[in-house]
Amino acid sequence: MSLQIEFEQGRRALIVRLKGELDHHTADVVKARMEEAIAKEHTHHVILSLKDLSFMDSSGLGVILGRYKQITSKGGKMVVCDVSPAVYRLFELSGMFKIVSIQDNERNAMSSLEVAL
């Protein structure tokens, strides 16, 4: 299975929705597309929606951590939402939740950033 990436630019938050599998085959594409979208000067925060992400490996964790560093270096925040049980477990085992904030859904993620679409 491949991966689909959808971007929605709000006022100050970029919503990134991933659908499919984020693994070593798709990580470079996700990295490049997210870097490009975040580099736009009006992007201050990122909401990463994983609602339709069916699989993620350590390559995916690396992509997320790298984009987290990219957005926080600009003074922004990253929030992950709609995480499946399998991906949640991967985040838990890796310690990612100590770094990245998690919310139940996009609305809560947006509220946690105090940003309106």
UniProtKB/TrEMBL annotation:
The record's comment on protein family reads: Belongs to the anti-sigma-factor antagonist family.
Record-given protein name = Anti-sigma F factor antagonist
Q: Which InterPro entries match?
A: Anti-sigma_ant, Anti-sigma_F_ant, STAS_dom, STAS_dom_sf
Xref: SUPFAM superfamilies: SpoIIaa-like
Taxonomy-wise, where does this protein's organism fall, top ranks first? Bacteria, Bacillati, Bacillota, Bacilli, Bacillales
So what does this one do?
In the phosphorylated form it could act as an anti-anti-sigma factor that counteracts SpoIIAB and thus releases sigma f from inhibition.
Q: Name one Pfam family in it.
A: STAS
Q: Which PROSITE patterns match?
A: STAS
> What PANTHER family is this protein classified in?
ANTI-SIGMA FACTOR ANTAGONIST TM_1081-RELATED (PTHR33495:SF2), ANTI-SIGMA FACTOR ANTAGONIST TM_1081-RELATED-RELATED (PTHR33495)
Q: Where is the STAS domain?
A: 3-117
Q: Does the keyword Nucleotide-binding apply?
A: no
Which NCBIfam families does this entry report, sorted A to Z?
A: ant_ant_sig, spore_II_AA
Statement: the UniProt record of this protein carries the keyword Phosphoprotein = yes
Q: Where is the signal peptide?
A: none
The UniProt keywords, alphabetically, are: Phosphoprotein, Sporulation
Designated gene of the protein:
spoIIAA
